[in-house]
Predict the structure.
Amino acid sequence: MSQLEPWEMEGSVSDNDGPQNSAPNPPQSADNWASSTWSAAPEPWESDIELKQRPQMNLHASAKGMDMMGSSQDVHSPISPRSSPSRRKRSADRPEPVSTPNNQAVDDLSLWQTFKELYKENPRVKYVITALVLLLLASLILLGVSLAGRKTQQDCSTAKHNSEPFIIQPPSVQNRNSGEFGASLDASSSYLVVGDPSPKCISQTEGDCSSFTVGGAVFVYRKSSKKNKDWELFSQFVLDDSLTSGDTFGTSVSISEDSRTIVVGSPMDDGFGVTAGAIYIMEEPFDNNKPPLRLASDDIGANDNFGGSVSVSVTTLPSNSSHGQVKVTNIVAGAASDDDLGSNSGGAYVFSKFEGIPVDGTCGGQDIIVNEWMQCQKLLPDDGGTFDRFAKSVHIADRTIIIGTDWDDDMGIDAGAAYVYSLGDDGNWGLQQKLLPTNSDSTANKFGNAVVTRGDIIVVGADLDDSQGVDSGAAYVYKLANGVWSLDSRLITIDDNPVHDGYECGKSVDISSDGNTILVGCPKGSVAFAFMLQNGVWIQKDYFTYEDFYSKQSALLGESLAAQPGVDGVIVTGYGANQEVFSYSKDC
């Protein structure tokens, strides 16, 4: 080995004839710390892996080199370099290292190396990373599906219904055919209920049927999953004994939003007096082998026609406990010929079924019997009078009841009116407002012949309104704002589909579950119109009719209406010349 040059440090030169000298130095004493091998103190940003890879410095070699350069006094000082005043001063005077892009790249690289080491050596890290990746992928998939579904819903909400309907023919039951199949309709997300108040018997000889009329029928259809078929017959209820003959069971029908309760009106029922009336209640699963529950008011009288109009809805009330809500199913049934305030002044009854105990005072303070139907209130107008026919039409949704009085005389003889009732947290119904027609001449318009409410919207039909011609009919939309119902608009058809004299538009009305579509039936014109809310204005979107000329002559399309919930909801209207019901769907 050649002699070291003055500027060369021991350990920095290798023997050309042999391997590089890498033998470790022998242990050193504390006084000779400069000749030992040591590592500089780790910087705050350095990881354990970087420290392992950090090169070691030989202080013995460094000391020799420094001594040759005249710096040996610093190396051999007995004072520890970590406590040296001169070192502390230099450290104090030395500026903090400035982060540069290169330094950042080194930091990023070291973080990546740390991550790789953890991933290789720690199985838990593998599982966590894998789970996070799968969770991220699942979230992206769900987001994509949600956005696609939202777009489909948006497209479907503005799409028009098919012009060709699915036709529901009246079924023949027990050798009897229909007389008014489709005279009343209602729909939920799962079911369609069709009333047939006057089915007739069939026979080869007229004499066999001359003295017999069936009491009425109701047919329950379930939404079909089959292509080109909207509905399938699911269940049927027929009154066909001599005691129920002529009861007109099915004059009015209603199904609750949760599809669990169906109510049917039978206003000519004689069980509690001649044509006193009754209502029938069927509950899911709507088994036609189980007789429906029959109810009547506690003060029913002859010729009251109780059940001429019915509606059912679900809501909640505060529980009598410190917290929680009680589910309540409410039925409102009209008796337009009730005589409490004069002959045919009318009245309405509220029946409720509680699934728990609500606050004290509910249902007029009666003792609540859980899961039993109870008559809670009878609603009468404070200004009611003879031949007003209060409750000619009724509808309930959540905590709002709207009651039509089509012969009210406030704005002229038989001009009509509608009363709005609301349900308080105390569990009782109270009058909120009376709605009157705004036309200068409303005589005999029959405002209130049909009513419906949904959310903050009320629609009132006036089937003999003269706004677009004599008895052309109209429908009026009211909006709730700051606790007050105000007239929002009168629905008018476009020029391409004019309404003519005698169409009686407004004989039936309905609102879609989202409150964005209003249906108006014009049975004497055999047509129904759909209006859609766009930018705060109701515009005509669709119209429905049956193009067969011969059928149209005697058809009453628009006599009844039902809008199935949902943006793709089916619109159903009845009935045709042969008592068909027409179901219009969307291709979305």
